[in-house]
């Protein structure tokens, strides 16, 4: 929608409330609901909605990491405006964040992705992205939260068990413009995977935020819980998020294929350089793509990618799909559905741009780099990556590192039930 389209929709009488939302540094949705008249004033006068800057920099327990904050101004982006189909007379719009003086906020990851996209466009290129997140659908019983069904991996049984929930998820997603290509019963009981249609980078990141909200809300309507936690059960498969990446020229023509590729794969020089740049920064990117302590417990699973390179085998972190010549996409395979989609795509784009500027190259079906084994290792790599920190914003990455190190400290200080069972009677 354009600004005029939004104002016209407000005049229709179908909307009484508008949620003005933004994304914090860790990828959580924050915001407040405005009455229609107040939102019309915000949109009509380009005023924006003020918030405390602390809301962008909250840790996993909603604690701020600094003692002094100025205001931030959330400027609604009319292109992200949707009417929430299962709520009464309620709409939602995503925002870009600004300082009170009108300069872009250094903590606005949606704005950082826009800057990365613009820099890529200056090189005559653009990305098309498709996210493929996995999630668990849970219910509560006398044991606590358990999988909602026990259908086998990729079986019709699982789709049958939750057909009402899945049909409503797809219906509501498509009503707000998020197109679903496929949905399947994944490896774990109560675990599902959904693939979204390809869109430009910002629209695709927006779609992921919208989809997570809708999936969680529909689960609540069904008296269930949807979780995107990477590894919610120690004895069940983890949840991942594959990302399909296609490079195109601004005129819409393909930039991924080269029938004369000397490696015999059909990948273009542009694509080799772009993905070679990603591999050069892979440790830093993993800190953003797999952003929780829990993420790395998934890394120990047999099906989790563990090869730092580009290859056709599914254990490569960047996979060449068997239908590459038709899809013209490569697959990034080590992200979590909890990742901040804007910050993650920005880190991939800036790394790819650097790779193209340096003329990076990479051998196919070979391991060319290592992958961090835990969050501390990934954070240390990111902390030492001066070029990516500069591209994403030094202060932003410093704040991200502080939030994550606080999380690590809290985890390492926590005494778990496993420890009590193992050590309480030790030495008797």
Task: Explain this structure.
A hairpin with a 2-residue loop joins strand 7 and strand 8 (144-147). Strands 7, 8, 9, 10, 11, 12, 13, 14, 15 and 16 form a ten-stranded mixed beta sheet that branches. Strands 1, 2, 3, 4, 5 and 6 form a six-stranded mixed beta sheet that branches. It is built from 15 helices and 16 strands. Helix content is 37%, strand content 23%. It is of the alpha+beta class and 428 residues long. The radius of gyration is 22 Å and the shape is globular. The protein folds into two domains: 3-107, Roll (Ubiquitin-like (UB roll)), CATH 3.10.20.70; 116-413, Glutamine synthetase/guanido kinase, catalytic domain (Creatine Kinase, Chain A, domain 2), CATH 3.30.590.10. The model has no long low-confidence stretch (mean pLDDT 95).
Summary tags:
428 residues, alpha+beta, Ubiquitin-like (UB roll), Creatine Kinase, Chain A, domain 2, 2 domains, 10-stranded mixed sheet, 6-stranded mixed sheet, 15 helices, 37% helix
């Amino acid at each position: 929608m354009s600004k005029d389209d939004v104002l016209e929709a407000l005049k229709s009488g179908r909307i009484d409330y508008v949620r003005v939302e933004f994304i914090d540094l860790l990828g959580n949705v924050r915001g407040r609901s405005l009455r229609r008249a107040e939102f019309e004033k915000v949109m009509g006068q380009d005023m924006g909605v003020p918030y405390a800057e602390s809301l962008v920099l909250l840790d996993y327990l909603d604690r701020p990491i600094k003692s002094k904050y100025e205001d931030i101004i959330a400027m609604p982006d009319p292109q992200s405006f949707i009417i929430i189909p299962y709520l009464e007379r309620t709409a939602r719009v995503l925002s870009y964040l600004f300082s009170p003086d009108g300069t872009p906020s250094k903590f606005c990851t949606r704005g950082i992705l826009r800057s990365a996209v613009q820099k890529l466009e200056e090189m005559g290129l653009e990305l098309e992205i498709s996210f493929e997140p996995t999630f668990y659908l849970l219910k509560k019983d006398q044991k606590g939260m358990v999988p909602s069904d026990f259908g086998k991996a990729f079986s019709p049984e699982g789709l049958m068990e939750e057909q009402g929930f899945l049909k409503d998820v797809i219906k509501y997603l498509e009503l707000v413009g998020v197109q679903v290509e496929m949905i399947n019963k994944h490896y774990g009981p109560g675990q599902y995977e959904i693939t979204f249609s390809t869109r430009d980078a910002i629209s695709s990141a927006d779609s992921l935020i919208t989809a997570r909200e809708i999936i969680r809300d529909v689960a609540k309507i069904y008296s269930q819980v949807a979780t995107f936690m990477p590894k919610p059960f120690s004895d069940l498969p983890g949840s991942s998020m594959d990302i399909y990446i296609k490079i195109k020229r601004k005129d819409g023509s393909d930039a991924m294929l080269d029938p004369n590729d000397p490696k015999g794969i059909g990948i273009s020089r542009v694509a080799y350089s772009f993905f070679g740049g990603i591999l050069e920064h892979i440790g830093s990117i993993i800190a953003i793509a797999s952003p929780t302590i829990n993420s790395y417990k998934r890394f120990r699973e047999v099906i989790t990618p563990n090869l730092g390179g580009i290859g056709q085998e599914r254990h490569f972190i960047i996979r060449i799909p068997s239908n590459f010549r038709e899809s013209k996409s490569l697959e990034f395979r080590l992200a979590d559905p909890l990742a901040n989609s804007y910050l993650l795509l920005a880190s991939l784009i800036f790394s790819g741009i650097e790779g193209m500027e340096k003329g990076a190259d990479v051998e196919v079906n070979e391991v060319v780099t290592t992958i961090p084994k835990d969050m501390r290792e990934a954070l240390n790599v990111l902390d030492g990556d001066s070029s990516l920190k500069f591209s994403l914003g030094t202060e932003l990455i410093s704040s991200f590192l502080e939030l994550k190190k606080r999380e690590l400290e809290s985890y390492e200080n926590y005494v778990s039930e496993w420890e009590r069972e193992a050590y309480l009677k030790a030495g008797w």
